[in-house]
Amino acid sequence: MLLLIYIFFLGLIVGSFVNVVIFRVPRGESVVSGRSRCTHCGNKIYWFDLIPVVSFFVLKFRCKQCHQRISWIYPAVELYSGIIFLLVFSFAGQVGMVNRLFLVFILEILLALALIDLKNLILPDAIMLVMLSGILACGILEYSSGRYLFNIFSFNNLIGAAVLFLTFFIFWFFSKGAWLGLGDAKLAGLVGLVFGLWGGLVIIYGAIIAGTVAGLVLLASHRANLKTKLPLGTFISFSATVYIFLGQGILEKVKPLFFSVPFIFK
Description:
Structural class: mainly alpha
Helix content: 55-70%
């Protein structure tokens, strides 16, 4: 029990850092230096007001300096991160520590990209470069240990990265960025590299469905029109997260179309 509490609290701390990434990276600010500041008044926030989740309620949802409301997104991200840690380290099946850490890494990166794209309609190259570095590191460690779960350097994964990136790149190129962004193509390629061609296709298909549903809801509620841009990266990240937890079952239901691949949560 104490171990689960420790794992959850570690997830909260990582979630607090993800909040920093979400806020600072789109602004071109460093995530490793500089004190946290209130987004309203710009005053520095002291460490005892930065305790994950707890400080949000202790401060009664408001900045101590200017008394402006603190967004619920901050504790939500921290709680989500804590849940990610609990799920991965408690129910991830018989996988090694390297794969568990990689799963946490991918899920946290997807969370950051989803919220950044939702708010800013961008997918920062800096974050995707970190994602690529982590993927390659996982592939090297898998190769050296001989224990393959993601099998990053397999033909299926490499061809998945190439096919998904090139498909999205072609749409981006010929639409001149009107249909989707170059960042979406890069993210699709990374998804293919992690989950392989078939897993990647399922994820992209799920993202298109989610995006279509969201678009129809926004149109019906008059909160958007046909020219409104939707954050495709957010839907890809959401779909990839769902696939991580349900990928085995999804592929088993479409065996006539896709090769079955082993996955984590069984």
